[in-house]
Design goal:
alpha/beta, Rossmann fold, four-stranded parallel β-sheet, 9 helices, 8 strands
């Protein structure tokens, strides 16, 4: 059985889902797991606050329940990991969050990781999450591009800002790995990595890669 992974974009912006879907190309292999990217129609255009993150928990759980019979693993494609633990309660299938997976992947690629955030108000959420993971000593910090999720579709402006902020994380904060702090940034990973000259983690790719491993190796969900 090759398996199926459903990647849930918890915001309602189809352009973000298309970018995520395109970023899955390296992970779509002959005979491998099918990777299906879907949009949460009930979600806001972008998840940019804790209130918005909390507001999509129930719709995410409904989606997981509805797809449980034909899916082998779920990925929640928002850097706040909204509904991650609630979704794990409603299915026996693996549920992975892109923030958790992106950070864990970064730890294998360097000593200090930095995060490119979307907005200044995203920074406390990053700090809380990474603090809860106990990784403060490996965390170089987060810096914002100051663009909304919808504005990330502006390719010229977004890539330029990510290069600028990624460079600050590398040179000023001494990060040797950069994590993209929003699924809406997915389309820019390769160009950003080439420009910065250090590993850049696109967290949805990281989460789907882990999901593939979970399916192939038959690992059960933790009790």
């Amino acid at each position: 059985m090759t398996g199926r992974i459903v990647v849930i974009n918890p915001n309602s912006t189809e352009a973000v889902t298309r970018g995520i879907d395109a970023a899955m190309a390296p992970l779509r292999l002959p005979g491998g797991a099918a990777i299906e990217c879907i949009t949460l129609a009930e979600g806001p255009p972008g998840i940019e606050s804790q209130v918005q993150a909390d507001g999509v928990i129930e719709p995410i759980c409904r989606t997981v329940r509805a797809r449980d019979n034909d899916t082998d693993a779920f990925v929640i494609a928002c850097f706040s990991d909204p509904g991650l633990h609630a979704a794990r309660d409603v299915t026996a299938k693996p549920v992975l969050g892109i923030a958790e997976c992106g950070v864990l992947t970064a730890l294998t690629l360097g000593q200090r990781f930095g995060v490119i955030a979307i907005l200044e108000r995203s920074l406390p959420r990053h700090q809380r999450y990474i603090g809860a993971m106990g990784l403060q000593t490996r965390y170089a910090g987060s810096l914002p591009v100051d663009l909304s999720v919808v504005e990330l579709a502006d390719e010229g402006r977004s890539l330029a800002r990510m290069i600028e902020i990624g460079g600050q994380l590398k040179e000023r904060e001494r990060a040797d790995v950069v994590v993209m702090g929003c699924a809406g940034m997915a389309r820019y990973r390769d160009r950003l990595q080439q420009t910065l000259g250090i590993p850049v983690v696109e967290p949805t790719q990281a989460a789907v890669a882990m999901a593939i491993g979970r399916i192939r190796l038959g690992w059960e969900k933790p009790a």
